[in-house]
Every structure is written in C-alpha cells, then in structure tokens.
Amino acid sequence: MNEKELTGALEAILFAAGDSMEEERLCAVLGVDTETFRAAAGRLEEELRDRSRGVRLVQMENRWQLVTAPEWSELVVRALEKRRTARLSPAAMEVLSIVAYYQPVTRSYIEKVRGVDSSYTVSFLTERGLIAPCGKLEAPGRPTLFATTEEFLRVMGIRDLSQLPPLPDIAEDESRAALRMAIEEKQESDGEE
C-alpha cells in the first residue's frame, strides 16, 4: 500500500468506526509499524486541517478518532436536532479538576479537598462519561477510585493529561489572582461558544 492509499484507508476505517480506535489495532489492521502509521496519521491530520474540511483527526493518548471540526459543530447540532450540551457548573468543574490532577481519587478525597458533599457531582460527571470508576482503594470499606476518561480528553481537546496546564502555587496571592483570572477567562470563552 502506498502513502496515499494508507492515508485513505486510515480515514475510511476511522470514519466507519465512528469512535476512537487504539493505535496498536490500527497498525495491525493496516499492516504497518508505528512509525509508518504515525506518518500516515500526520498526513491525514494535515490534509483535513489544510482543506478546511468538516472533520479533524485527533489523538487521545494511544487512540485516534475523526471528530467534527469545531467551526462546524453548531451546524451539526442543529442538523441533528440535538440540544446543546449543558455547561458544567462551577462545582462540576472543581470536581473534574480534582480528579484530573490527582487521579485516581476517592469521593471522600474530593469532599475533603472541596469541603462539601460531592456525591451528586461525582454521579453527574460519571453519567456524562467525563470520569469513571477505575478500581477500589485497598483500605477499609474499599472505596471506589475515580479517574478521567477518554471523553474527558476529547472534550478538553487534549491528547493526554500531560497537556493539562500546571497548577499554580495558590499559597501566593499572585498565583491566586492568576488562577481566578484564568477561571474567569475560561468561563467567558465558554459563554461565547
């Protein structure tokens, strides 16, 4: 299979899958090594971006998926008559941040950090697929551990957790102000979308 055919085959597989696929599986199906696969994925990603097409190729850790280009998402929502996804409340963003930065965590750890009951918020984020149970803590009662999901990476537009911004040192007043400003800017940009 030449480069052009390999890129086309990758696009066809991911389009038909409709969901993300593991890189290892794609390499096996296409009969190529990781380096050849990543070169083909890079070409496809560039083609889709350069031609202002309706889809983009995204990588989430070791998985790949075709997704709607952000500039066309509103039209897709209207065409499919889906309600716009509700924005996350500040409480949900807090819980999601705690899980993202300190995972795996228990609900009691989340509540200790926040200082309030977080049962509803943890359930809500689990139902939305942004966090998921990932095991049990070896402690009395064997509480459930939670971690972020692939859906979290997709929604946040990042490949892996290493792309999360570093946590500021909130012990310093400047860092607290910077954190407050970053949160306000994020909320404003979410309001524009």
Strand order of the largest sheet: 1-3-2
DSSP helical segment count = 9
Structural class estimated from helices and strands: alpha+beta
Sheet-strand content, in percent, reads 5-15%
Helix content estimate: 40-55%
Distance between the termini: 42 Å
Number of E-state strands: 6
Topology:
Layout: H1 3-17, E1 21-22, H2 23-30, H3 34-50, E2 55-60, E3 63-68, H4 73-79, H5 90-102, E4 105-106, H6 107-114, H7 119-127, E5 131-136, E6 144-148, H8 150-156, H9 173-192
Antiparallel strand pairs: 1-3, 2-3, 4-6, 5-6
What do these coordinates show?
- This protein is an alpha+beta fold and 193 residues long.
- The protein has nine helices and six strands; from the N terminus they run H-E-H-H-E-E-H-H-E-H-H-E-E-H-H.
- The strands form two sheets. A three-stranded antiparallel sheet has the order 1-3-2.
- It starts with a helix and ends with a helix.
- 16% of the residues are buried.
- The model has no long low-confidence stretch (mean pLDDT 85).
What are the salient characteristics of this protein?
single chain, 193 residues, alpha+beta, three-stranded antiparallel β-sheet, 9 helices, globular
